[in-house]
């Protein structure tokens, strides 16, 4: 096949010709231990959730010590995001988007709290505290019960109230 | 002096819009007749700065002290200093390149101070060979450079309020900037790691205190994504992701993860906070769209624009920028009568894909109240919508991807204000 045909084929497949470039191969193999230290992201399937557990009662203690200043009593918001309430407002002129009214996945709460919260001291919470905070926020929104235990097994099974109301706008090109 | 052709003198649309070639053909005479130049403002024959040697050479340049008022408009989230946004003063800039110092910022937990000697990028997940790259190693890789815009998904959202915000062009639309970005095609690094067939997405994660993270389709990664190391010829500014950021031409700004430290190839999107609870588009029917990635065709007149004042009737050049995340700008039309009639603007070339495109059109203002608008059309044929059309389609509550036509009202006294039309 001629180079021109190859390029046409590449374009038709949505593959930029830059992809034909080669690098000097300077990446160093990453060990499983190194990857474990970096890989904090948690998808909807919950893969990679750490050991540990927590309940709403324990989470309330953490929340009132470390979160309430920005997110208000019982997640009511101000000065920063409201975390609870707002159910049934999404068709209103001023919808209230909270964890309970809007967020499609419970795993996102754990992922985000672990990587980014508390705002001034991220990466300071233990896995138990993070599970407990997640449980507290879900219970505040009546998504789980007050005594439900959140851990690596239970959290991915939580079905968020607004889960069925999301559609993906992305369409994969014909390719590869 | 070249005689202006009949064509260039001709009014081509309502309320004084003249042919786009006026400034090109008979421009000198026309511009000289404009009321900008004032004899009183001219310096003496031998100004003070000609009577002594100037200041010395400097290792790193700075702009004139007389331009110090050209600044980003900074708005931080309550209770923070580093979360929020600063906006490019579009109305003070010309051409298509945004100076790096004036490129908009949007941070979710401030700007980290990163030592490049300690910064590494990990590629792992559904790959044959998980790899770590040092910054020294990345500097050895083949690079490409392109002039491309970056626009925050929430840009212009101020116009989605009941009353038009009385701000400058940059204050409303300045979460958009355009730079010469240089870096390594992501495809090169992904090929080295060897993406497995089931790898359809990747998670990009930053090294800021928010660990900002977004899911990106693998097709985009293999298309035109780069790991950007340079902006406008020099290494990235800290607020633009130093030492390395993901750059996804045409895609909403938030996905162009700054301070990039990790790429995880996945089968499905990770559904991070910033692609579910934020940067998703709630529609009037209560359903929400995820993954609305490309920024749509858009334009804004930067002169005359909000908070500026006309200097009396006469000849003006209407100018602004247009862009589309889907490719090149095909044409920009300008109206001086609130959209009743339109004239095609001149485009400064070369017109580049997914880049700012500068447009211009001469206008003879007769001093009467006028509403100026610009309307971009991109190479896919997408036409920038009117505000009523966009609001009808998207509802009152939407936050992201606002790309409606901007209307500037020019009052008889010369004040330029933001209006909905």
Give an overview in words.
The complex is a heterodimer of chains A (176) and B (421). With 176 residues, chain A is mostly helical. Chain A has helices at residues 3-12, 32-38, 56-66, 68-71, 107-116, 127-140, and strands spanning 28-29, 53-54, 150-151, 166-168. Chain A has a two-stranded antiparallel sheet with strand order 2-3. The two termini of chain A are 18 Å apart. Chain B contains nine helices and 26 strands. Chain B has helices at residues 6-9, 22-25, 27-32, 135-138, 169-173, 186-193, 218-223, 273-276, 387-394; strands spanning 11-13, 17-18, 73-76, 84-87, 105-107, 120-125, 131-134, 144-151, 176-185, 201-206, 213-217, 226-231, 234-235, 245-247, 260-266, 281-282, 288-290, 298-303, 314-323, 329-335, 343-344, 346-347, 357-365, 370-378, 407-410, 416-419. In chain B, strand 6 (120-125) and strand 7 form a beta hairpin. Chain B is globular and about 70 Å long.
- Show unreliable segments of chain A: 1-19
Query: Number of helix segments of chain B?
Result: 9
Calculate the terminal CA-CA distance of chain B, rounded to whole Å: 41 Å
Mean pLDDT of chain A: 90
Can you count the beta strands of chain A? 4
What is the radius of gyration of chain A computed over CA atoms, rounded to a whole number of angstroms? Answer: 22 Å
Order of helices and strands of chain A: HEHEHHHHEE
Query: Which oligomeric form is depicted?
Result: heterodimer
- Whole-Å distance between the termini of chain A? 18 Å
For the sheet with most strands of chain B, the description reads: 5 strands, mixed
| Secondary-structure class of chain A | mainly alpha
CATH architecture of the domain at 116-271 in chain B: Alpha-Beta Complex
Strand numbers in spatial order across the main sheet of chain B: 7-6-15-10-11
Any low-confidence stretches of chain B, pLDDT <50, length ≥5? 25-37
Main sheet properties of chain A = 2 strands, antiparallel
């Amino acid at each position: 096949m001629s180079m021109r045909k190859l390029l046409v084929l590449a374009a038709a497949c949505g593959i930029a010709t830059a992809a034909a470039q080669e690098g000097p191969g300077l990446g160093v193999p990453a060990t499983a231990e190194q990857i474990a230290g970096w890989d904090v992201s948690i998808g909807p399937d919950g893969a990679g959730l750490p050991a540990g557990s927590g309940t709403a009662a324990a989470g309330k203690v953490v929340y009132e010590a470390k979160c309430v200043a920005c997110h208000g009593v019982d997640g009511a918001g101000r000065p920063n995001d409201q975390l609870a309430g707002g159910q049934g407002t999404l068709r209103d002129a001023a919808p209230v988007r909270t964890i309970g009214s809007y967020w499609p996945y419970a795993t996102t709460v754990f992922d985000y709290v672990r990587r980014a919260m508390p705002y001034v001291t991220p990466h300071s919470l233990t896995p138990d505290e993070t599970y407990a905070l997640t449980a507290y926020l879900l219970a505040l929104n009546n998504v789980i019960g007050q005594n439900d235990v959140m851990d690596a097994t239970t959290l991915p099974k939580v079905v968020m109230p607004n889960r069925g109301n999301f559609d993906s706008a992305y369409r994969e090109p014909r390719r590869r | 002096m070249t005689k202006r052709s009949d064509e260039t003198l001709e009014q081509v649309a309502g309320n004084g819009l003249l042919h786009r070639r006026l400034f090109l053909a008979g421009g000198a005479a026309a511009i000289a007749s404009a009321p900008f130049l004032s004899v009183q403002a001219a310096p003496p024959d031998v100004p003070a700065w000609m009577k002594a040697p100037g200041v010395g050479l400097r290792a790193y340049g700075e702009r004139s002290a007389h331009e110090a008022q050209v600044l980003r408009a900074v708005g931080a989230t309550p209770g923070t200093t580093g979360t929020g946004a600063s906006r490019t003063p579009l109305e003070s800039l010309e051409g298509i390149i945004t100076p790096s110092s004036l490129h908009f910022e949007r941070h979710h937990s401030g700007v980290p101070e990163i030592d490049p000697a300690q910064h590494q990028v990990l590629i792992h997940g559904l790959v044959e060979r998980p790899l770590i790259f040092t910054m020294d190693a990345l500097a050895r890789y083949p690079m490409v450079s392109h002039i491309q815009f970056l626009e925050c998904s929430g840009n212009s959202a101020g116009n989605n309020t009941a009353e038009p915000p009385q701000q400058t062009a940059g204050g409303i639309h300045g979460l958009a900037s355009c730079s010469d970005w240089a870096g390594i095609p992501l495809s090169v690094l992904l090929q080295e790691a060897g993406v497995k067939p089931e790898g359809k997405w990747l998670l990009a994660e930053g090294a800021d205190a928010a660990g900002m993270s977004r899911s990106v389709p693998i097709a985009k990664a293999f298309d035109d994504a780069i790991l950007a190391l340079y902006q406008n010829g020099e290494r990235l500014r800290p607020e633009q992701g130093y030492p390395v950021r993901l750059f996804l031409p045409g895609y909403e700004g938030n996905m162009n993860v700054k301070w990039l430290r990790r790429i995880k190839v996945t089968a499905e999107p990770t559904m991070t906070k910033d692609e579910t609870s934020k940067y998703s588009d709630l529609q009037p029917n209560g359903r929400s769209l995820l993954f609305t990635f490309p920024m749509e065709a858009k334009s804004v007149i930067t002169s005359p624009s909000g908070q500026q004042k006309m200097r009396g009737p006469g000849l003006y050049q209407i100018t602004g920028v247009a862009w589309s995340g889907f490719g090149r700008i095909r044409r920009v039309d300008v109206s001086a009568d609130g959209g009743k009639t339109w004239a095609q603007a001149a485009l400064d070339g070369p017109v580049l894909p997914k880049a700012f495109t500068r447009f211009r059109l001469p206008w003879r203002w007769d001093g009467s109240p006028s509403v100026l608008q610009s309307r971009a059309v991109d190479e896919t044929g997408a036409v920038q919508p009117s505000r009523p059309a966009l609001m009808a389609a998207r509802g009152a509550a939407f936050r992201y991807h606002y790309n409606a036509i901007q209307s500037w009202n020019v009052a008889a006294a010369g004040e330029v204000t933001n209006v909905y039309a």
